[in-house]
């Protein structure tokens, strides 16, 4: 440091003043120093003094410089400069003698630094004393002299941060470049210092803006909170210092608290984390707040919020905020505005330089602790009482930060604040090498945060080396978004750059305490981790773990269809449904041949005959009656419908046996297997993979896609189970029950309801808990309740056994019967019960006639191991007691039999060598078949039993020869009308829906419920496209009721966040306007990804619809499925393995590590008192209101969801939940072409008057009181407002106004505030200018305009029926009438003045329609596209889903202004006309194809146009998209261009006009053709997309319209 610089710093210690004043003062003082000869050295140095900016300022009033230096002051300055020169020489000599100069080479610097650190390490005290004893006598003498910094008197308060007293109440702060009267702060002016708030060593703080200070507070303090926006929910962070901390701050106890809005406190202490007082394991997720541990740090982060890193060992804390908080924070971290001058602001809003006042104001009282003492004002420095010799050593060690290896970081992060920290910590702790390492580490961390890590600095100081366990390495920069095997991190702006600590090398991943290669990452399955290379079995496929992903074979697996309980069907593809099936139906049959047919015959059963039970199961192969197998409800088996056969039975085609006492199995050689439990109404049909895509019937299509499972014989896909089921009804003699709304059986059997609820709850209890992660019990529980309410205990045991069997298929054995006495199986005395047994090999007959036994097993009674079933005695006997069978005869043990092979003896079970009244009146064309006149036996006609109907023809069934005749009306022989629909299938867009807190419908139509509080991926594309949509349930009031979802849409460079119910993106969102189009229509906010064929609709509550075009087929993942038109693989995890339960599937797609353990019990079971209310409310879905949609969209799923939602919302928001649930069904009906107008004043009303009210009342005239017949008028051209006689001509004059609510935002709910808008020119308002004159001006988006265009309406002022208008912008000024003008005048207490301010607002205007031009109306199903300023054609979104809500109705010649919500003329739009790209209806465009697709709609390219309109025919020409010829306009497989047009309107006329006035005429548009590679367009007239004409006369003028083509679409919000 130059001596002149020291002098300059002393002289610049003046009180705060303006920058210009300070600069002039410095130049004047420097000039005086030059004149007095003080400047030492060259003239260059003198100039440096003059130009150097002052860095240290003093607030002492005693040091204030007078404009003129008196001789006394000059003498004082000379004295000070002389003292500084002496001290400078002393410091320079001392520095050189202690090797602190920067000229030393790297090796000497390293060795010197090592010795310095060892001096402060207790382990090196002996060496330290030895070094001191070898000091020369001259040095000892010099060290014993008083330090120059303490040589001049005592200060009334201690100097901080290395400052020393040079005069009472004056400190020299040059050592560490501190500022303030007592050197209390040190600004960090590093060029690239990251704006991070940090605190270390208990008492060291640095604000976001880089202001360091030492504050020895031992209480709890607010580090930061949001002090500017009270409406925003943001975090509040406190630090809790150790009240008992004495000398070594880095080892004292410290903790940090984060208070989350609506959530609670997160407390970090050491390496423990508690939330609401409960310990949590990391990683952990609390809504959008993520907690994880990285090395020795606990990192807490919130997207668009903050990142906090807590160093568990030392208690250091680092906080980085999102840019949206700039200037909003307060607390010990400052206000985050890049200005260090205003950081010290107290909690009560006062700026101060007193650190004790500042720090104490942010103290927080903890109720459970004693009151914490405040820090005294002007507290002493830790170094104040230290010996000068010790202080020199402190400076010596801390000056190490000025040299290598730290010097390379100086231009980015200033070292002086850390040198001050070093000095404070060493003075406080005494000699300790660990403290020095901590201080150096803090500076290295700051450099790393500034993206300039000092990688090898510890090599210079061996005592600071860190030993890491195992294969971990110490790294100065670990990314805050480290790669994990399982967690996908989203690196956000508020993330710290990096952290230091022990971590894996760059090419390895830290996983569960060890370092692994990416290829060695383990895979997760059902909560278990499997190492890379492990193979598991999933159905018939093998899955290998490869790099954290399951790689599974894709073999086609056998399928199973089931019929259980009271007619609950589950198809091969997994679709579950029910309907009142009391007739005979085709369960399954081969689609393209007659290879097999399985039918079931049902009959009414139950106490009230309101149920259905299986009477028999019939199987026919190859349409051959001789192969017909029938299983009856008594367990008997018949062949060819008449021969009862004994089991086991086998031939070339069949193998029939009793698997157990409960199951009969029929297995055919064609890959078909039937298992029938006649005791518990359960039937299972299993088909080998060879039948895939070749089945129809009630079991579905067996192609992995549930969407076409309801395929009817006609070839159409039915919409409801009732229509589908009866389409497969075999005999027309059986009349199905009418299609009535299905009521809950527990409502009609209320006496059984409580029993059903109690017993069925066992599915969710411990007995079955081992299976919950494999098979969700929710659906089985609902079926259980319905069945048990109808038939009691038998149905209970049936559904429980069905669930246990499903669990067994996943390898989980459940033995539930021993826990439920009513379901216990009583076996014969010699038999035993087994969960999975087969009697095939445990029969005596098997010993004589061996037969192949498969691996099939079922529950039931069988003989114990080692015994065999004797069919004669029906007991289990030892093998020695088994009879032998030979040629149909049985022989007892020991019997001798003569055979062709010789004498045989029976030993060990084998031979060893040694009508009702029917109406006979038939419809026209049919004849009555009277079976009573026929003789028994086979007959060519069987009446209705074998009637050739259209349905039976389509079923292609063969009538059994032994089928009994059924009398009835039938068609004559040979008459049958038949036919099938031939459908052409094309790729179509598909929609994924989620609503409520749990309901999901995937792109492929798979329905499931997932309950979770975590952020989950709804849609995630493959890595090359980089598109995702995540959603998170928001519990707004911590009541457990989900009120809305927050959305995050990431596509390309866009990052769009919706986190409140306004429907507008969060300000921190990053939106690529070229790729994203956002608008609001009805209930919905719509986000359309241009060119991506993807649209997101969000109702600003809990409903989200995502529409994806066919180009995304097979390229998506997430909770919306993979969009591959199959549902069998819909629940696939990110590890590429199928989940068995929706909960497991949902948890696998969380966007961050999240602990999710929700209560999956049915809400109506948890809140039984709500169930009657829910059923009454949700009954609207089953009523005639929605009846027209029932045949189109099955209401069952939506009705069950409505019950769940309405029962669940029992703590507020019940109407919201109910209405959302009903709206989901209405929306689905809408998309299928069925519009349901279901809302009413009593059911989920929706009022559009909010929008209409803003448009005002009128139109009105403002008639004056003083001159009757005179009214307020405005000139269209100039905007001037003047009085006008009522009967005179009105050409070019506006006299009608809409009185709207005041547009000022000052008092938005004050009904006395009004504004006046021109009725014939919406968007133009009467505005009071500063001069008091009124003008008609176009709406502006400024508060000044809003206030100036708002008036206070005083009704019946002074005279009844007349009102006065007071200006809101100029209170006390009223609208005043004078014969020649109207203007604002200040109130005068005179009768003349009063009368001149009275006006009559009259609205009776003949031949003029009342009301505003725009009307907002509710629509229950309408396209979200309408003509707006940004999209005049209204064709930019024609392919998007229809919506519900309030939409504007504008006249044909006007468009909606999205800013003001008014129908306006095109030239009156607030924002320039920008036409968004037209998106054609989604079609499949292959990657390589020569096909041409026809586009209808406007072209998206717009030519540059400059057209002058003649005065005689002033026609406004605007650029617009054209309607190309559908015959000529073709497109090759290329992505559509995204084009935006910005329009500038230049108006010229004889006088300046604020209004662009033109006549509108209709012209024919020019059709333009384009080649596949180039689109050519020409301008068209406005009527190309605005129909209708206007006859309003306007002044002639000349207008020129200039257009410029750019590539940026418009995004609007309204």
Structure in words:
The chain has 1614 residues and is of the alpha+beta class. The chain is 17% helix and 26% strand. Helix 21 (1171-1178) packs across helix 22. It is flat and about 135 Å long. It starts with a helix and ends in an 8-residue tail after the last strand.
Largest sheet geometry: 9 strands, antiparallel
Count of runs of 4 or more consecutive helical residues:
26
Shape: flat
Content-based structural category: alpha+beta
User: End-to-end span in angstroms?
Assistant: 62 Å
**Physical arrangement of strands within the biggest beta sheet:** 3-6-5-4-17-16-15-14-13
Strand coverage percent:
25-35%
**Oligomerization state:** single chain
State the total count of DSSP E strands: 90
Provide the low-confidence segments as ranges.
1-71, 85-152, 932-940, 1477-1614
What's the rounded overall pLDDT mean? Answer: 77
User: Over all CA atoms, what is the radius of gyration?
Assistant: 44 Å
Q: Helicity level, as a percent range?
A: 10-25%
């Amino acid at each position: 440091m130059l001596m002149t610089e020291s002098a300059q710093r002393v002289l610049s210690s003046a009180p705060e003043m303006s920058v210009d004043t300070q600069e002039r003062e410095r130049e004047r003082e420097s000039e005086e120093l030059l004149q007095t000869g003080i400047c030492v050295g060259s003239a260059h140095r003198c100039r440096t003094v003059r130009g150097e900016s002052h860095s240290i300022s003093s607030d002492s009033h005693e040091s204030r410089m007078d404009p003129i230096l008196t001789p006394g002051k000059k003498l004082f300055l000379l004295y000070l400069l002389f003292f500084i020169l002496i001290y400078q020489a002393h410091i320079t000599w001392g520095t050189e003698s202690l090797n602190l100069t920067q000229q030393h080479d790297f090796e000497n610097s390293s060795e010197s630094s090592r010795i310095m650190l060892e001096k402060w390490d207790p382990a090196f005290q002996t060496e330290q004393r030895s070094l001191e004893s070898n000091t020369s006598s001259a040095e000892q003498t010099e060290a014993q002299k008083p330090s120059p910094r303490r040589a001049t008197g005592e200060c009334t308060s201690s100097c901080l941060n290395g400052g020393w007293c040079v005069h009472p109440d004056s400190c020299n702060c040059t050592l560490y470049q501190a500022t303030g009267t007592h050197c209390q702060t040190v600004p960090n002016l590093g060029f690239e210092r990251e704006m991070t708030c940090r605190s270390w060593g208990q008492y060291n703080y640095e604000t976001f803006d880089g202001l360091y200070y030492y504050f020895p507070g031992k209480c709890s303090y607010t580090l930061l909170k949001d002090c500017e926006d009270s409406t925003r929910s943001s975090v509040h962070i406190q630090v809790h210092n150790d009240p008992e901390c004495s000398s070594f701050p880095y080892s004292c106890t410290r903790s940090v608290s984060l208070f989350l809005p609506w959530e609670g406190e997160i407390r970090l202490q050491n390496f423990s984390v508690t939330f609401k007082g409960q310990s949590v394991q990391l990683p952990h997720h609390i809504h959008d707040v993520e907690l994880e541990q990285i090395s020795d740090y606990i990192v807490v982060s919130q997207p668009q919020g903050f990142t906090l890193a807590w160093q568990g060992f030392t208690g250091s804390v680092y906080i980085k905020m999102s840019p949206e908080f700039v200037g909003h924070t307060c607390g010990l971290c400052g206000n985050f505005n890049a200005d260090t001058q205003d950081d010290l602001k107290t909690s009560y809003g006062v700026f101060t330089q007193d650190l004790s006042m500042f720090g104490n104001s942010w103290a927080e009282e903890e109720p459970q602790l004693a009151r914490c003492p405040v820090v005294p004002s002007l507290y002493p420095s830790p170094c104040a009482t230290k010996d000068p010799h010790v202080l020199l050593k402190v400076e010596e060690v801390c000056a190490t930060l000025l040299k290598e290896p730290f010097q390379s970081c100086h231009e980015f992060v200033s070292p002086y604040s850390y040198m001050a920290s070093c000095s404070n910590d060493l003075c406080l702790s005494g000699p300790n090498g660990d403290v020095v390492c901590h201080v150096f580490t803090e500076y290295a961390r700051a450099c790393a945060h500034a993206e300039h890590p000092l990688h090898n600095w510890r090599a210079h100081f061996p005592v600071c080396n860190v030993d890491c366990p195992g294969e971990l390495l110490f790294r100065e920069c670990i990314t805050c978004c480290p790669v994990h095997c399982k967690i996908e991190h989203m690196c956000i702006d508020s993330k710290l750059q990096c952290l230091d600590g022990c971590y894996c090398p760059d090419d390895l991943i830290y996983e569960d305490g060890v370092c692994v290669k990416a290829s060695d990452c383990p895979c997760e399955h059902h909560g278990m981790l499997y190492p890379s290379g492990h193979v598991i079995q999933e159905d018939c496929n093998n899955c290998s773990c490869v790099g954290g992903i399951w790689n599974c074979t894709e073999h086609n697996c056998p399928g199973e269809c089931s019929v259980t309980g009271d007619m609950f069907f589950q198809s091969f593809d997994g679709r579950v449904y029910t309907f009142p099936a009391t007739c005979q139906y085709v369960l399954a049959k081969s689609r393209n041949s007659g290879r097999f047919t399985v039918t079931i015959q049902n009959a009414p059963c139950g106490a009230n005959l309101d149920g259905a039970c299986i009477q028999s199961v019939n199987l026919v192969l190859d349409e051959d009656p001789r192969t017909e197998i029938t299983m009856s409800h008594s367990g008997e088996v018949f062949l060819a419908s008449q021969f009862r056969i004994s089991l086991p039975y086998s031939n070339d085609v069949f193998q029939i046996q009793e698997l157990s006492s409960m199951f009969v199995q029929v297995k055919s050689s064609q890959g078909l297997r039937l298992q029938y439990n006649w005791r518990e109404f359960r039937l299972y049909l299993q088909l080998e993979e060879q039948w895939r895509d070749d089945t129809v019937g009630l079991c579905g299509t067996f192609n992995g896609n549930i969407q076409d499972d309801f395929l009817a014989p006609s070839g159409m896909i039915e919409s409801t189970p009732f229509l589908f089921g009866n389409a497969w009804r075999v005999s027309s003699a059986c009349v199905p029950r009418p299609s009535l709304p299905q009521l809950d059986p527990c409502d009609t059997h209320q006496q059984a309801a409580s029993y059903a609820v109690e017993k069925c709850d066992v599915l969710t209890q411990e007995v079955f808990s081992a299976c919950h992660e494999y098979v969700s019990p929710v659906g089985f529980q609902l079926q259980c309740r319905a069945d048990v309410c109808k038939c009691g205990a038998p149905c209970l045991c049936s559904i429980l056994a069905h669930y246990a069997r499903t669990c067994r298929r996943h390898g989980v054995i459940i033995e539930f019967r021993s826990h439920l006495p009513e379901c216990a199986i009583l076996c014969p005395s010699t038999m035993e019960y087994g969960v999975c047994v087969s009697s095939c090999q445990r029969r005596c007959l098997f010993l004589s006639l061996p037969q192949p036994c498969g691996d099939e097993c079922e529950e039931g009674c069988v003989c114990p191991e080692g015994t065999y079933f004797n069919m004669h005695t029906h007991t289990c006997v030892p093998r020695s007691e088994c009879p032998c069978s030979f040629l149909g005869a049985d022989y007892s043990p020991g019997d001798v039999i003569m055979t062709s092979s010789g004498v045989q003896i029976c030993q060990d079970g084998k031979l060893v060598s040694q009508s009702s009244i029917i109406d006979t009146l038939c419809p026209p064309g049919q004849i009555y078949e009277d079976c009573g006149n026929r003789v028994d036996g086979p007959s060519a006609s069987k009446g209705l039993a074998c009637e050739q109907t259209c349905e039976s023809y389509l079923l292609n069934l063969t009538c059994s020869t032994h089928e009994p005749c059924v009398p009835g009306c039938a068609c004559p022989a040979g008459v049958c009308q038949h036919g099938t629909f031939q459908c052409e299938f094309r790729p179509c867009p598909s929609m994924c829906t989620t609503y409520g807190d749990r309901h999901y419908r995937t792109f492929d139509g798979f329905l499931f419920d997932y309950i979770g509080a975590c952020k989950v991926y709804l849609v995630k594309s493959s890595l090359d496209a980089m598109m995702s949509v995540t959603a998170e349930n928001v519990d707004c009031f911590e009541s457990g009721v989900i009120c809305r979802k927050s959305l995050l849409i990431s596509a390309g460079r866009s990052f769009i966040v919706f986190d409140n119910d306004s429907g507008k993106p969060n300000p921190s969102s990053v939106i690529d306007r070229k790729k994203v189009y956002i608008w609001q229509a009805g209930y919905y906010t719509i986000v359309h990804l241009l060119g991506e064929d993807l649209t997101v609709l969000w109702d600003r509550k809990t409903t989200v619809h995502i529409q994806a075009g066919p180009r995304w087929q097979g390229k998506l993942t997430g909770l919306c499925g993979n969009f591959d038109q199959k549902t069998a693989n819909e629940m696939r995890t990110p590890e590429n393995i199928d989940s068995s339960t929706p909960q497991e599937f949902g948890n696998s797609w969380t966007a961050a590590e999240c602990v999710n353990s929700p209560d999956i019990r049915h809400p109506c079971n948890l809140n039984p008192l709500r169930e009657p209310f829910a059923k009454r409310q949700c009954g609207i879905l089953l009523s005639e209101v929605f009846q027209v949609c029932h045949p189109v969209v099955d209401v069952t799923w939506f009705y069950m969801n409505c019950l769940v939602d309405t029962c669940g919302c029992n703590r507020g928001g019940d109407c919201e939940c109910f209405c959302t649930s009903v709206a989901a069904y209405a929306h689905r009906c809408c998309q299928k072409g069925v519009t349901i107008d279901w809302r009413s004043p009593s059911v989920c009303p929706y009022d559009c008057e909010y929008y209409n009210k803003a448009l005002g009342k009128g139109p009105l005239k403002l008639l004056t009181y003083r001159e009757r017949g005179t009214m307020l008028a405005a000139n269209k051209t100039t905007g001037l407002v003047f009085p006008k006689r009522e009967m005179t001509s009105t050409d070019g004059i506006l006299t009608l106004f809409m009185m709207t609510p005041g547009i000022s935002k000052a008092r938005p709910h004050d009904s006395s505030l009004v504004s006046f808008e021109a009725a014939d020119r919406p968007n133009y308002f009467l505005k009071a200018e500063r001069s008091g004159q009124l003008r008609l001006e176009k709406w502006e988006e400024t508060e000044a305009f809003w206030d100036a265009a708002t008036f206070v309406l005083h009704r019946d002022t002074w005279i009844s029926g007349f009102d006065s208008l007071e200006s809101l912008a100029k209170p006390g000024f009223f609208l005043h009438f004078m014969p020649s003008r109207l203007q604002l005048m200040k109130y005068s207490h005179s009768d003349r003045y009063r009368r001149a301010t009275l006006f009559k607002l009259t609205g009776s205007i003949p031949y003029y329609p009342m009301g505003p031009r725009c009307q907002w109306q509710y629509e229950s199903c309408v396209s979200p596209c309408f003509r707006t300023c940004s999209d005049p054609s209204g064709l930019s979104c024609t392919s998007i889903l229809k919506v519900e809500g309030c939409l504007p109705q504008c006249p044909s010649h006007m468009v909606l202004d999205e800013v003001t919500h008014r129908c306006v003329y095109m030239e009156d739009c607030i924002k320039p006309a920008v036409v968004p790209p037209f998106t054609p209806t989604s079609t499949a465009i292959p990657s390589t194809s020569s096909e041409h697709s026809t586009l209808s709609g406007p072209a998206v390219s717009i030519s540059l146009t400059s057209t002058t309109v003649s005065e005689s025919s002033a026609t406004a020409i605007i650029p617009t998209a054209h309607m190309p010829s559908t015959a000529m306009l073709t497109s090759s497989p290329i992505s559509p261009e995204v084009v935006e047009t910005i329009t500038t309107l230049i108006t010229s006329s004889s006088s300046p006009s604020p209004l662009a006035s033109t006549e509108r005429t209709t012209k024919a548009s020019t059709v333009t053709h384009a080649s596949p590679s180039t689109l050519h367009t020409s301008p068209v007239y406005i009527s190309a997309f605005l129909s209708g004409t206007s006859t309003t006369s306007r002044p002639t003028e000349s207008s020129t319209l200039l257009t410029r083509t750019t590539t940026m679409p418009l995004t609007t919000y309204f």
